[in-house]
Amino acid sequence: MTLLTILVLLIVLVFLFVQFSPQFGAAPDKSSQLRYEQLPYYTDGKFSNLIPTNMDMSTGKAIRMLPEFFKNDPARRPDFEIPIEKRDSLELTGPVAATRLVWFGHSAFLLQIDGKTILIDPMLGEVPSPHPLLGKKRFSKELPIAIEKLPKIDLVMISHDHYDHLDYGSIQKLMGKTERFLVPLGVAAHFERWGVDKSAIQEFAWWEEAQIDSLRLAFTPSRHFSGRGLNDRFSTLWGSWVIQGAEENLYFSGDSGYGPHFSEIGEKYGPFDLAMMECGQYNENWADIHMAPEETAQAAADLNTKVFMPIHWGAFTLAMHTWTDPVERVQRKAEALDQAIVIPKIGSFIDLSSELKTRENWWVKP
């Protein structure tokens, strides 16, 4: 009876946590779902990928993988303090002569282009999960700059609603200094529950564009999925972003398995000056929704980009490979394809007016 009581209590606590914690966001309302039904990739309340995508990992297999996933493998995170370049708030304020980015690790960026300051997938919290006990901490103890010291943000752009890309705590701190939030279909419901004014949120379907002053923005497909709770998988859309300024043309992949959409995006919007490409957190059990490093390099070539940067690594352990496996393998494949690659230090300025090249192998233990 004691064991049964404990089990019932745990179930009740989990239910209450999921029901009432704001971390989980909210579901799109019925009127929104009716609008989504006009799309060819939305059926019976769920979005789908453009090509068949295997998501069939049985519950039994997932449970059997848990010990391996949570194994304390020292190779899965750095055993030294990875170098971080610190940024000062004054550096990010005022006119900027050239397009530049700052990488926060994983998939989070600050982009300054055509007089706009933009945050892309700003997961700036410590743990990518609905509760700190349910995930592993960020590799680095500090960010290049604290959220509180960031300047006014013109746009926050979100690729999808997974915890390592959309962080409730970060959005809470950014609300007061952000003018506009650009999100995939369905994700507005999360932001509204979190207190963001509806007028500040703009939702996008695949291939939908927006012109904001000199910037042309397009939300483009990826091959992935969405969901923050126990039963909301596929209820919101996922995707990638094209950001075209007066001079430079950039691509941000979000999360994606390999597929023909990269060539389609390259044909429609390329060539690109820089492509930020998912490269990390892969495994053979979810090969359709996350690329292996070799596929990342090939996808960059498909896009027709001058240079690409591997992202989705360098900050968190979300898969079973070593923490440097992504960068080591993608470098080799890029060289084989004669595809230019840049791997900047976290926090350094990535200046598109100068030659983009890797200046040091900062991930190698000194």
Strand arrangement across the biggest beta sheet: 8-7-6-5-4-3-16
**CATH homologous superfamily heading:** Ribonuclease Z/Hydroxyacylglutathione hydrolase-like
Q: Residue-averaged pLDDT, rounded?
A: 93
Q: Uncertain segments of ≥5 residues (pLDDT<50)? A: none
Largest sheet: 7 strands, mixed
Beta-strand residue percentage: 15-25%
Helix/strand order, N-terminal first: HHEEHEEEEHEHEEEEEHEHEHEE
Structural class: alpha/beta
Supply the CATH architecture.
4-Layer Sandwich
Choose one word for the global shape: globular
Q: How many strand elements?
A: 16
Helical run tally: 8
Count of discrete structural domains = 1
Give me the CATH fold name: Metallo-beta-lactamase, Chain A
Helix content: 10-25%
Radius of gyration: 20 Å
- The CATH class is Alpha Beta
Description:
β14, α8 and β15 form a beta-alpha-beta unit. It contains 8 helices and 16 strands. The longest helix is centred in the first third of the chain and has 19 residues. The strands form 3 sheets. The chain has a 7-stranded mixed sheet with strand order 8-7-6-5-4-3-16, with no helix packed on it. A 7-stranded mixed sheet has the order 9-10-11-12-13-14-15, with helices on one face. A two-stranded antiparallel sheet has the order 1-2. With 366 residues, it is α/β, with parallel strands linked by helices. The model has no long low-confidence stretch (mean pLDDT 93). The protein has one domain: Metallo-beta-lactamase, Chain A (4-Layer Sandwich), CATH 3.60.15.10. It is globular and about 70 Å long. It comes from Algoriphagus oliviformis. It holds the Pfam family Lactamase_B_2. This is MBL fold metallo-hydrolase.
